């Protein structure tokens, strides 16, 4: 359910009757302000989070920190949310200087991310990264699999071939477009526009996705994630509603089939980043919504 002014009101309803009867997974919440949950990796403090198809690494880096990734099996995402904290990404023998407030897609293989000014760096890897999945099993033992999410299938490769591709996130709003959406072969990231003050409670947007999870990364402010689980025929699978308050920085993983909406409640700036793995077809089908669609084609559905 969306307000008529919400661009998502144009989307077709997401319904998959084959999912009926499968247990709905629990939600997962990760607090990246909890120092007891972080680990030291070189010159960075790193928090791990797990969703069905991906692993998120949230790093607070000291100046000069280098984040190393070896033998990465597929493309990954680097988010640099701090405007004054850029990065130097090295891949395939090439060096790329990236400004802060950018999203970067890094191809498979060996790569490094140097952070001369330090700051925040968020990396998103699919569960094909077996070593990171194993690390999550140690650090995130509360994770439960979501049986309503299909196995990960990557989207087509860019016509120009693999390359480090960086995009500035300082993109002005446009009437009829929802957020700032970028996609690659493995992820779709919607860098939503900041909201000043609490959300109007008469304009919430409860909705559900039957075949994929939504992960909401809170970068500023505070949100209440309202989640309602369906009542299927087996009452043993029923869950109580959640109205979970999450501050910045944090990640909420919302399971497939659960009705949900996120309500900004902070007095100042509130900001979310929505993450999907793989990319969403319905968002991709909306003309102009995906800002780098020319670089990353959608699958041929004909």
UniProtKB/TrEMBL annotation:
Descriptive protein name: Uncharacterized protein
InterPro entries noted in UniProt: RmlC-like_jellyroll, RmlC_Cupin_sf
């Amino acid at each position: 359910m969306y307000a008529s002014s919400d661009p998502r009101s144009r989307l077709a309803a997401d319904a998959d009757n084959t999912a009926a009867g499968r247990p709905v997974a629990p939600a997962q919440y990760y607090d990246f302000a909890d120092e007891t949950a972080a680990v030291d990796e070189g010159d960075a403090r790193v928090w791990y989070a797990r969703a069905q198809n991906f692993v998120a690494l949230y790093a607070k880096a000291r100046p000069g920190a280098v984040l190393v990734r070896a033998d990465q099996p597929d493309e990954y995402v680097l988010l640099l949310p701090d405007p004054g904290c850029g990065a130097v990404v090295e891949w395939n023998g090439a060096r790329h200087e990236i400004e802060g407030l950018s999203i970067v897609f890094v191809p498979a293989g060996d790569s490094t991310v140097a952070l001369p000014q330090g700051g925040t760096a968020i990396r998103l890897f699919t569960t094909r990264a077996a070593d990171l999945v194993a690390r999550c099993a140690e650090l995130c033992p509360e994770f439960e699999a979501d049986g309503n999410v299909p196995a990960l299938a990557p989207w087509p490769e860019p016509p120009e071939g693999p390359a480090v591709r960086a995009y500035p996130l300082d993109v002005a709003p446009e009437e009829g477009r929802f957020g700032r959406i970028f996609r690659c072969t493995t992820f779709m990231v919607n860098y939503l526009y900041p909201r000043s003050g609490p959300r109007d409670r008469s304009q919430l947007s409860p909705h559900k996705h039957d075949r994929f999870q939504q992960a909401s990364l809170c970068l500023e402010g505070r949100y209440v994630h309202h989640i309602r689980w369906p009542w299927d025929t087996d009452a043993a699978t029923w869950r109580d509603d959640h109205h979970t308050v999450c501050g910045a920085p944090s990640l909420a993983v919302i399971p497939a089939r659960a009705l949900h909406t996120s309500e900004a409640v902070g007095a100042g700036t509130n900001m979310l980043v929505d993450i999907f793995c793989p990319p969403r077809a319905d968002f991709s089908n909306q003309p102009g919504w995906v800002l780098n669609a020319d670089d990353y084609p959608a699958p041929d559905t004909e």
